[in-house]
Each structure stands twice: as C-alpha cells, then as structure tokens.
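Researcher: First entry.
Model:
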Amino acid sequence: MDLAEFVHFVVEDLYEKGNLDETRRAFQVLEQFLTGSDQDTRNLIGLGFFETLQNVASSRPGGNKVSEQFFGPMSKQICSELLLDRA
C-alpha cells in the first residue's frame, strides 16, 4: 500500500469534500494498526502516513492543525515525535 496515496485520498477525497465521518474512520483504522502492531509497523505508519500528512497539510488552509482533531493517543504521540525530530 502506498501510504502517500492514502494520505492524498484522506485529505483530498474525504476531508476536503466534507466527508468527516469517513475521515474520522480512516484515522481510527490507523490508530488500531498503531496500537496493535510491532515497532516496525508503527515506524512505517509514522513515516509513511503522518510525515506525508504533515507535508501535504502544511500547504493547505489550517495547516497541520486541521487533522489533529482526528488523532487518537498513538497518532498524537507519533506526530509529536516527528515534530521533535525536525527541530
């Protein structure tokens, strides 16, 4: 699965078209993967999805803050770690 394509699907085809329930569901599925997987899978999702999400969202209205409403605890943790790595 190409996580960059999935990011664009979530942002462009779900969120930007107002499909907030589906957007929320996509983040819930990712959260389930994060909580029920090994470190390699969490790294893949962190780098493949969340880092790409940050890059895509940074060029849109509201920036990275828009997607935070959909984050679960593991998503928040991974995103804050990604931001620390950039500092």
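Researcher: Second entry.
Model:
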Amino acid sequence: MELIKNLGIKDTGKTAGIISYFTIVGWLFAYFAFHQNKKTDVGSYQLRQTLLLHIVSMAVIFGLPFILGTIWTSDGVFSLSYFMRLLEFAFFVLWILGLIGAINGEKKSIPIVGERAQILFSNI
C-alpha cells in the first residue's frame, strides 16, 4: 500500500477487486491489505461478489459430487464427471466476467451471484 502511495498512484479499489478474484487466499489478502483501511465503492462491490462466487463455487464443486456420487448411475456422456466439468466451465465464465469488470473498475454485477452478494455481504 505504501508503494502505491509513494508512486503517486490513486487507488480506486481496482487493486483489491482484481486480487480478490484469485482464490480465497487472494480475497483475504485483498481485504486485509488493500480494503480494510481504505474502503472504496468499487473495492467493496467486487469483494462482495468474489466472496459469494468463491463460496458457491467451492460448495458446488466439492459438495455436489459427494451428494450425487452415490445416486448418479449414468455413464458416458451423461456421467457425473461431464456434468461437473460443465459446472466448472460455467463458474470459470462467471469468474472471467467478474474479473473483466474489476479490471475496468466497474461495478458490473456477475450473473446469478452478483446481486445476491450485494445483499448478503452489505457490511463489507
């Protein structure tokens, strides 16, 4: 943070928003290193979205196979493995859309989770 100040770069929250997209560890780093002491609208908006995106994606990617693994009996094209790859791709697309918004410094909502995140985590 001091380096940004010393270089004369104005932090508008884009840095926290961009870093928060790179795993939950990146989210924690962005929150505590960049956002906690200097809250911005864009940073708060992106942090809320990425937190819910990380939570939902981890719950679905790790929890769904555990729950459906015993009852999903199809093989071939309709296997659980293909279904999970499709879900992972969908989360990747949502991640890319959110990251593009963070890079541009926009308060652009991620489809499906964006608006819900703003309500659930309004205190961030």
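Model: Note on the second entry: The mean pLDDT is 84.
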